[in-house]
Amino acid sequence: MHDKIYPVSDDWAKRAQIDEPTYRAMYQRSVADPDGFWAEQAKRIDWIQPFTKVKNTSFAPDNVSIKWFEDGALNVSANCVDRHLAKRGDQVAILWEGDDPTESRSITYRELSEQVNVFANVLKEMGAKKGDRITIYMPMIPETAFAMLACTRIGAVHSVVFGGFSPDSLAGRIQDCDSKLVITADEGLRAGKKIPLKANVDAALAKLGGDVKTLVVQRTFTDIPMQNGRDVFYGDLAKTVSQHCEPEAMNAEDPLFILYTSGSTGKPKGVLHTTGGYLVYASLTHSKVFDYQDGDIYWCTADVGWVTGHSYIVYGPLSNGATTLMFEGVPTYPTNSRFWEVIDKHQVNIFYTAPTAIRALMQAGDEPVKKTSRASLRLLGSVGEPINPEAWEWYHRVVGDDRCPIVDTWWQTETGGILITPLPGAIGQKPGSATLPFFGVQPAIVDGEGKVLEGVAEGNLIITDSWPGQMRSIYGDHARFMETYFSTYKNAYFTGDGCRRDADGYYWITGRVDDVLNVSGHRMGTAEVESALVAHEHVSEAAVVGYPHDIKGQGIYAYVTLMAGAEASDTLRKELVAWVRTEIGPIASPDLIQFAPGLPKTRSGKIMRRILRKIAEGEFGNLGDTSTLADPAVVDDLVANRQNKR
Ligand code: ATP
Ligand code: MG
């Protein structure tokens, strides 16, 4: 991988909250004296009852217990809404851009307060109370944020399920956390198409039976069947309730939300986050990683159904009194210029998206980007998968006009917030590297036996001590929590990701540990081979997996998606093999290349190598859990055009 470095510019070093010496000093302090460091940082949050204890955590096998600020009390909605009213009542809190480019809404902090108070009272009217689990199955509209904040106001635990999930997947998630109320909408709207959310809820509830109620927000006002005694229109109840709802004082360790992981590696896990530590961590990371400053317009393109949407559309930005843009649509509707047009329309300064979107837009070429201004942009971000250096360079050069640093943020649903990332005014960037740990985060690289590797190293990524945003358990299954994350390596949190550390101490995520290739005894991450392929001018996206090979043990099977206009051929196949050979070395040259119009992805856009491996192995009958797949049809094409061993 190329180790080209993009240093912090003088401008950025000056304007940013944190420059390099400050980062080094704060980081040192955060690991030497976590109690002192986090006690200070926690002051950014308003506490109803101040805490006296800061950190009380144990990663001991069979006895994992994680508590932060455990005797403090606070309310999340009071922190995200009420406390901003005096200073920012008229400032826009949520800037909403509809699927249709002519539709947008601006919601000030004052309006947000009114909406959240009423929504909270509606929830109470529906019988919801502190500790209840409430499922939210909604499109990307402001009411979804109101609903989440309303849950936190009354102390209910939300479980947001991405609106693209099927009735089956939804039913499983409602059942897993035993929620008695589902908040949904009549329909969602994406890329001009209607998504029958309420009908999906009906189908899910038909499977479950029992006493689950629904609260229906009207988005399209289409005629939908409502079941008497079970389904209620939000608008009808909202008219009848009081305008004020007192925020519930929650203990710092009371559950805040449950969120199911995206399911790249198997059955999703119900990740449980609690109140105090999560909010402190989401708030601090949002402020420092994006260097958010008063008046900035900030846009994270994730869906609120993912943790990125929780921490970096809703809780991080709103706790910081930011203006957060929420987008209902998709990057390619009505045209490939949509993202950039929205940036110009709302004068967005900070833009945070995923490699899957960047690669898709890169495939369409520079012109749809270049015809927009993007002069307001100052900072770019990436999250969700390793970003191939080629895609990073394109993002930097074409989208950011060589002007904007890129924060490549590595983290997980489980971590609550960003763990490894550049800070834009402090840490120079290398394309493809998540760079250095955030405050309080202690990464280590271990070999298969758990031996900690020092200096330049490659192996498995663990985190050796707790940080406030860490998940506390898997909902209802603490044993599975300990087994999944704390049994592989003693006294450490196991991330499941492979990682390399270079001579500058920078971290490079090499892919999922489960996906590591072993070719003739050489272990290789998937990211490196994929990035070499993507670096070829005709390749827009690539996924590699291993398959059984008589001589090498494992051979390399590469699925390759081409740039618009490029032609699949045997000549190109040979060219790509030779290309990888020179880019990395003969050991990494693909044995088989399949040209694929699309790759199987989770609904959050991550490549599911697990399924690609099965196809490469010829095990079509046993593809595993495919319920989180965005487009099952992609798999049929891949199976039909599988390359045979030659
Ligand atoms: P499941 O745990 O159910 O398999 P998932 O791991 O895809 O699903 P998420 O929590 O959404 O669920 O994703 C976290 C993973 O995404 C990380 O473990 C890592 O593999 C990948 N990831 C996220 N951000 C980055 C990044 N900046 N660089 C490299 N990888 C990243
Ligand atoms: Mg995971």
From TrEMBL:
Residues annotated for ATP binding in this entry: G384, E385, P386, D408, T409, W410, W411, Q412, T413, D497, R512, R523
Span of the signal peptide: none
Reaction(s) catalysed (UniProt annotation): acetate + ATP + CoA = acetyl-CoA + AMP + diphosphate
Keyword Transmembrane helix found: no
Mod. after translation: Acetylated. Deacetylation by the SIR2-homolog deacetylase activates the enzyme.
Domain AMP-dependent synthetase/ligase residues, every copy: 82-464
Cofactor or coenzyme needed: Mg(2+)
Record NCBIfam families: Ac_CoA_lig_AcsA, PRK00174.1
Full protein name: Acetyl-coenzyme A synthetase
